[in-house]
Design a protein that fits this description.
elongated; Rna Polymerase Sigma Factor, Chain: A; 72% helix; 10 helices; mainly alpha; Arc Repressor Mutant, subunit A
């Protein structure tokens, strides 16, 4: 992401505030998205993202360069998210994450010539989206993290292995089990078996 990542790291180690601002601008959106997908709450993700960058700044001396800086930052974010989830308990309460509001583009769809979904289909789609969010939130911490990294962040198995420290085969087998658990929970929610 940076032309000279080594120089940025050096400046961060010198406690250069401009370097810190550059780092935040470069990574804040990705870190926020990662935290939002894990936590399901925008305000909490925003607060935690700030904590992540403070940790990065305070801990930059411990960055050994064994991985890319971005990988190290995302690993810190992952650890913060895991700790926050443990703090809140193993399962989020149902209904914590509101469905996204209808955007102006959706309302304006008839003027663009695109088809507007039937209200009953839209309600079904919104319920399915809510159920998938609930199902993801109810996975155990590791399963949720693997689903987020692979299926929502679209990271490669190698990147997941680098971020989690798990061997490649372990990532694949645990991700498979996480997907099965997600599918079962989603199906139960759709059938009304809570």
């Amino acid at each position: 992401m940076f032309g000279d990542e080594d120089r940025l790291i050096e400046r961060l180690r010198e406690r250069d505030e401009a370097a810190f601002n550059q780092l935040v601008r470069a990574y804040q959106a990705a870190v926020f998205r990662q935290l939002l997908r894990v936590l399901g709450d925008a305000a909490e993700a925003e607060d935690l993202a700030q904590e992540v960058f403070v940790t990065v700044f305070k801990s930059i001396e411990s960055f050994r360069g064994d991985s890319r800086l971005s990988t190290w930052i995302h690993r810190i974010a992952q650890n913060h998210a895991r700790n926050r989830l443990k703090y809140h308990g193993r399962h989020k309460r149902r209904g914590d994450t509101p469905l996204e509001d209808t955007t102006e583009e959706t309302v304006a769809a008839p003027h663009t010539g695109s088809r507007v979904p039937r209200p009953d289909h839209q309600i079904e789609a919104e319920q399915a989206e809510a159920n998938i969010r609930i199902a993801i939130a109810e996975l155990d911490d590791e399963q949720r993290m693997l689903i987020v990294l692979r299926d929502l962040e679209n990271l490669s198995y190698e990147d997941i292995q680098e971020r989690t420290g798990l061997p490649s085969g372990t990532v694949k087998s645990r991700l498979h089990r996480a997907r099965l658990a997600l599918h079962e929970r989603f199906r139960a929610l759709n059938e009304g078996k809570t």
